Amino acid sequence: MSLSDIGPVVLIGAGKMGLALARGWITGGLPPDRLVLCDPQPGEAAVKFAAEHGVRLLASPIGVLTHVLVLAVKPQIIYDVMSEIQPIVGGYTLVISIAAGIPLVGLSEGLLTDRVVRAMPNTPAQIGRGISGAVGLKITDEDRETANALLSAAGQVVWFDDEAKIDAVTAVSGSGPAYVFYMVEALAAAARKQGFDEEQAMILARATVTGAAALMDADPTPAATLRENVTSPNGTTAAALKVLMAPDGLEPLLDRAVDAARKRSEELGRS
Predict the structure, then answer these.
(1) 193 and 147 both lie in a single domain
(2) What's the mean pLDDT in 241-245?
């Protein structure tokens, strides 16, 4: 399905992730007159985006024809938002939510529809390099094609039949970019202890991580093999990996971090 065949699309929440999706849609061929941004307090970026692309920017979607409704608001306020916008949801409306932790049943009850997709993209969507996990248990094949076209504009999409997987997606790829950014911070901090100044340390850390990521993206070789290719027996990399791969090293640490994020996602769904 082409983005040019979809719409009208009403996006509730014009923050960073909402705008990242909107940019992908416009770039991918969604006609600007079929996109409506709704935010009662839009930021400068939203105002600029709407002006540049000729997209309507409204405080409220009430009265707007909505074939696809995308909820890009914080989970803490989503139930209040749904109560307000429920009148614009009709039998013809497909709902896509990217609010962390909010279950399909909560979305269905809040908007009085079963045509709901729950998805979790991540911040690389801002440059079209994101990945989203998605689930829709009571949608039609056409609904899935529509949702897939919209989510694919921001990067890859992985669909699941088990909704519980979305909380895990949130913990792995949804929050994952922050883990990588923090790794850069930590690597730069370690570099400073080796005598580099702050600028040098950050240049080395950023280039190392982005370069390794680019290599992995270009080479389908498994990550473990790429790691082994860099590791000479009894060499410097092996010495560092002995620390990182210790029983109390990086793997159990990330396991605890991902598990904490998944549990928080589940908590948000119950609150």
Answers:
(1) no
(2) 96
Residue 1 in this model has a pLDDT that exceeds 80: no
Domain boundary among the residues 161, 195, 230 is at: 161
pLDDT confidence of 91, banded at 50, 70, 90?
confident
Q: What string of H, E and C letters represents the secondary structure of the chain?
A: CCHHHCCCEEEECCCHHHHHHHHHHHHHCCCHHHEEEECCCCCHHHHHHHHHHCCEEECCCCCCCCCEEEECCCCCCHHHHHHHHHHHCCCCCEEEECCCCCCHHHHHHHHCCCCEEEEECCHHHHHCCEEEEEECCCCCHHHHHHHHHHHHCCEEEEECCCCHHHHHHHHHHHCHHHHHHHHHHHHHHHHHHCCCCHHHHHHHHHHHHHHHHHHHHHCCCCHHHHHHHHCCCCCHHHHHHHHHCCCCCHHHHHHHHHHHHHHHHHHHHHC
For residue range 165-191, what is the model confidence (pLDDT) as tens digits?
999 999 999 999 999 999 999 999 999
CATH code, 243: 1.10.3730.10
Specify if 220 maps to a domain: yes
Output the pLDDT for position 268: 84
Q: How many domains does the chain have?
A: 2
Look up the pTM and report it: 0.88
Domain with 72 in it: what CATH number?
3.40.50.720
Residue ranges making up the domain that contains 196:
176-270
